[in-house]
């Protein structure tokens, strides 16, 4: 397995992976997630691939893209009571259904952790949906702990 920077040539595979996670999230929380049109999906991911401020890795096995991860660095500058240190924020992690449990996610997370260290980040944060128990278990096994909880109310 090879972890590398995503390229424009990867967009078809990226969109396919995005569709997998988007469908699952939409089925559990249709008031939060939408299934975008293919053209919108492709435009979004093309912009992500070409971003200079984020990192976008893909996992490749025998020439096939089987996972992706995106992340960026933030720094609090607005609230005086929150520490002002660089934080790596993971935006999206997707592993193809057929490859789950085979170490793809661990390798992607490890690549972002190394990148975050190079960026002088002192921690990594991510958001995981409450219904996604398998993802919660995956992150917990990697040493992630609950730091806060996002609560919502539909009005």
TrEMBL record:
Keyword Transferase attached: yes
Keywords, ordered alphabetically: Acyltransferase, Transferase
One Pfam family it belongs to: Acetyltransf_1
Keyword Magnesium: no
Residue ranges annotated for the N-acetyltransferase domain, each copy included: 1-155
Stored InterPro entries: Acyl_CoA_acyltransferase, Bact_Acetyltransf, GNAT_dom
Record protein name field: GNAT family N-acetyltransferase
């Amino acid at each position: 397995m090879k972890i590398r920077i995503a390229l424009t040539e990867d967009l078809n595979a990226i969109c396919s992976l995005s569709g997998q996670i988007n469908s699952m999230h939409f089925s559990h929380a249709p008031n939060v997630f939408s299934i975008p049109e293919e053209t919108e999906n492709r435009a979004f991911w093309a912009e992500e691939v070409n971003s200079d401020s984020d990192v976008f890795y893909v996992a490749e096995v025998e020439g096939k893209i089987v996972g992706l991860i995106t992340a960026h660095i933030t720094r609090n500058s607005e609230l005086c009571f929150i520490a002002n240190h660089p934080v790596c924020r993971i935006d999206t992690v997707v592993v193809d259904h057929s490859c789950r449990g085979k170490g793809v996610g661990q390798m992607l997370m490890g690549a972002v952790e190394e990148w975050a260290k190079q960026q002088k980040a002192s921690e990594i944060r991510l958001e995981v949906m409450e219904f996604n128990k398998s993802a919660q278990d995956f992150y917990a096994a990697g040493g992630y702990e609950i730091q806060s909880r996002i609560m919502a109310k539909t009005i």
